[in-house]
């Protein structure tokens, strides 16, 4: 019986030949990923398994996935379920369908995920609150570590950013770019690339809320004061003071953001 199954799979061109194309089809790593689906939410389960196979390189970017009929037989589901799973993965940017060529994995581009999420944050105020909560957990910790690792070059960069913010404040211009740059340099001062990457994602998500709060009277000036307090603590290499200054800075932003949020009735 098992032999007949393998012969049938081979006649359908499954598994694809070549270790890189589908290097672990019969290995222990993904043996639980390519098998009949038993859960009720079939398309979601298929999408999740294909996502794992894309991310671990089993289905490499730029190389067409096996045909729908092959995947349907291997997963033990209908071709319609495979198509639904494909649509789910296309929505998050993991797959692209090219007419006449097939369906291809794509390198995961964080911008495809950040742009729609940032847009949602602009009107989902409960998500803005959760983002602020994340900042309270993350950014004071970043400032604390930065205070123990910051270099003279980092401090010089932060001072240049503050000078640019002050000049824009005097002329009434937006300093969102400098605000973002300040938090980037602070993350860089930790000498941790993961922190820098997380901060870059966070900065992308904060664009809309910064646009909103920067329009408020007094917000740019308070932002500069918050940044100056952080830099003062960094110069003193005072980790506790740096963390507290960042926490106060974020609390001030939260107060301004809540003040700018329209009251909803009903």
Layout of strands and helices, then pairs:
Elements: H1 2-11, H2 42-55, H3 68-75, H4 79-91, E1 95-98, E2 102-105, H5 110-121, H6 125-149, H7 152-171, H8 176-188, H9 193-214, H10 219-235, H11 239-260
Antiparallel strand pairs: 1-2
Give a verbal description of the structure:
It is a single chain. The chain is mainly α. The protein has 2 domains: 2-108, Arc Repressor Mutant, subunit A, CATH 1.10.10.10; 112-260, Up-down Bundle (Four Helix Bundle (Hemerythrin (Met), subunit A)). 66% of the residues lie in helices and 3% in strands. A two-stranded antiparallel sheet has the order 1-2. The protein is elongated.
- Portion of residues within helices: 55-70%
Sequence of secondary-structure elements:
HHHHEEHHHHHHH
Rg over CA atoms, rounded to whole Å, is 25 Å
Mean pLDDT: 79
Under CATH at level 1, the class of the largest domain stands as Mainly Alpha
Overall domain count: 2
Number of strands: 2
């Amino acid at each position: 019986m098992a032999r007949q199954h393998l012969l049938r799979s081979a006649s359908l061109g499954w598994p694809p030949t070549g270790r890189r194309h589908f290097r672990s089809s019969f290995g222990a790593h993904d043996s639980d990923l390519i098998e009949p689906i038993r859960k009720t939410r079939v398309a979601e389960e298929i999408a999740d398994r294909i996502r794992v196979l894309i991310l671990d390189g089993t289905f490499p970017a730029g190389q067409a996935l096996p045909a729908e009929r092959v995947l349907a037989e291997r997963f033990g589901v209908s071709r319609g379920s495979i198509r639904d799973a494909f649509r789910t993965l296309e929505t998050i940017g993991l797959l692209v369908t090219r007419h006449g060529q097939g369906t291809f994995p794509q390198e995961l581009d964080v911008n495809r995920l950040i742009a729609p999420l940032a847009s949602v944050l602009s009107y989902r105020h409960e998500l803005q609150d959760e983002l602020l909560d994340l900042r309270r957990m993350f950014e004071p910790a970043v400032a604390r570590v930065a205070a123990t690792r910051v270099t003279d070059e980092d401090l010089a960069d932060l001072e240049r950013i503050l000078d640019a913010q002050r000049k824009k404040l005097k002329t009434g211009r937006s300093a969102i770019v400098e605000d973002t740059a300040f938090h980037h340099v602070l993350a860089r001062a930790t000498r941790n690339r993961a922190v820098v990457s997380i901060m870059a994602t966070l900065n992308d998500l904060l664009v809309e809320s910064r646009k909103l709060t920067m329009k408020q009277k007094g917000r740019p000036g308070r932002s500069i004061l918050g940044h100056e307090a952080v830099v003062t603590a960094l110069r003193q290499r005072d980790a506790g003071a740096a963390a507290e200054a960042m926490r106060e800075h974020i609390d001030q932003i939260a107060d301004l953001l809540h003040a700018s949020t329209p009251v909803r009735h009903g």
